[in-house]
Amino acid sequence: MTLVFVTAKAQNTPKDSISPIKGHYNESKFKQLQEELPTPNAYRTASGAPGFAYYQQQADYVMQITLDDKNQRIYGEATVTYTNNSPDALDYLWVQLDQNIQAPNSLSKKTNGEGPAMGYQAQKYVEEFMGKPFDGGYKLDYVKDATGKDISYTVNETMMRINLEKPLASKGQMVFKMKWWYNINNYMIHRGRSGYEHFEEDGNNLYIIAQFYPRMAVYNDAEGWQTLQYLGTGEFSLVFGNFDVKITTPADHVMEATGILQNPQEVFTKDQYKRYELAQKSYDQPVVVVTQAEAEVSEKGFSEKTKTWHYKAEMVRDFAFATSRKLIYDAQAVKLGNKTVLAISLYPKEGNPLWEQVSTKVVVHTLKSYSAHLFDYPYPKAISINANQQGMEYPMICFNGGRPREDGSWSKQTYNGTVGVITHEVGHNWFPMIVNSDERQWGWMDEGLNTFTQLMAQEEFEPGFESRGYPKDLVEYMTGDQSKLEPIMTQHDLVHDSGKNAYHKPAAGLYMLREFIMGRELFDHAFKTYANRWKFKHPSVADFFRTMEDASGIDLDWFWRGWFYTTDVNDIGIKTVNQFVLTDEPTARVKRMAAAYGMPVDQFPKMIHLVAKDSPDYKPEYDQNTNPTEDFQILKEYLAKNFTSEEQAQLKNVKYFYEIVFEKPGGLVMPILVDIVYVDGSKESFNFPGLIWRLNDKQVSKVFPSEKEIKEIIIDPLEITADVNLENNYYPRRAVSDKFEEFKKKTE
Description:
The protein has 748 residues and is an alpha+beta fold. It is elongated and about 105 Å long. Among the domains are: 156 residues, Zincin-like (2-Layer Sandwich); 181 residues, no CATH class. The chain has a seven-stranded mixed β-sheet. The protein has a six-stranded mixed β-sheet with strand order 16-19-20-21-23-22, sandwiched between helices. Strands 5-6-3-10 form a four-stranded antiparallel β-sheet, with no helix packed on it. The chain is 26% helix and 26% strand. It has 20 helices and 31 strands.
């Protein structure tokens, strides 16, 4: 038998009987971040805390380093003990060779598509165009195992894979040795986050040395091996460990470095050592350990002898140092909890008198402020080094620009810049040196969080201090060319404007969370919880977002999505303002409701109604109902029954009713901050949470009852929501410079 399927002809089917409605996915800006965030697991919980199975690797270094000041070279030998705390057997190890960014044909240079530089110093011109490039990058002499046997390795640009003969088992250790050298770059010519500054007038160099040794890459549960190449913008992803480092310099050099100095009596003169000891007990002002007079004598000597500085550091993710015969050295003790920390500054005479007055003072303040907002600084010291045109951070030590004019004077801009860079770079000890996020991937997790904490510290240091991180200063950036804007959640090397994207915008977002979205009490508790949960650990983006919600009890997914995952802008305006009058006569709306319930209107519950003056229900006589407690019997009866005369006297006698319709042309969800100014000059402020937009992303309305007539309505009066269009923020409208119209033309 054959079965034949025949389509039956429809009988008189009208064309519009097929539904034109098409369904859609959840497009709400309030939907949860389930699609964006990784699934919680035993390593990282849904609360944002480390899970019971959380682990992290450890890399311990014993190093002997020699600085060749005559040839500007570093020579190094290191023994590395790598501990595999993961549950995985590792077939190979990855090591970072970040110094290879200075190699003549580095990946960074090959992928630079920006065209000619603004200008070329003579040395740079010869290197770039005359066939004599700077010979930078590591020169590896060997990689050997603990027995001295050569280990196979493969160099891939700024990464090196150590090829193991057999997998490194879980909980196992690998000990290997490396020997290398490299030419130190003049960072004033070749740029870079470390190098040396040459002083032509006296022939000396000031060395700020970092990325000077091959560093273990991070292996963790979230990424596996972090092997993104170092291109210069995305900074570092590093492993915690212990360091034992000996650094040999010319005998007339002064040095500071990560860790505790083990041999101060050997490297300081007798008088300097006495001052060094005194500084550790001086809580009121800095003690000058190496004076300017001593530094000026040393910078003329160029000793042929050497001395070795010995430092040990525990539980740090990196090591850096600074050295020169030009350096002045001062230090002051700081009491934090039950421990004393040494705040230290080193600077050449070219930094004075600005640095002797400012640097250590700012270090002390930063240590106190950050400790109060996050957790007590755990390391024994914090060092600020004056390095021209620099701003870079490492555990316990940072390199900071800012110098006075030759006559010793300085501008307000120089002062602000010096205070700002010292605060920022010392603050990096918390993010990412201790709360150890992956800078190579997410620059904002250290720069943005630190810029925000810096903003708070600077407000405490000097009220009105000019800081970046305020929302209103972002408007021009956010209304710029969208082709050159990226969401904050963009890998750092792919960002056009790192300063705005990784520093300013995240800081502004946290500022808004603290000031009006969460409130200071809830924000401060959550922010401190995140810092304490993840100190000396490796947090991810999800750990931060989840902890902020978990510790505050506030759902912030709408904010993370809009501010961090998009380039949308905030534009909230006043669409219309309607004035209402009162009546107890049934309105058209009531009549429709009564009909729907099949009830006569006179049997519908007696109510007082708000009637818009432009409504068909409006009657001029309603204007007379300005004293509701006298004009409406149902209100009089309710009050008499439920309140004493004394209580009634305390109640408001509302005479005016306004409906404000708020519109949201911008794509961002944001709370509505409103000031109502009355004719008598008084004012009320309102904060309607972002959730007010949850059912209508275009417009919402609120009714404002008042005993007084409204004179003016202002949205975001303090300009703290990064609102890009102030023209619609006022009722009645004000003439305000409008950058938003230009922005709209660009994006249409």
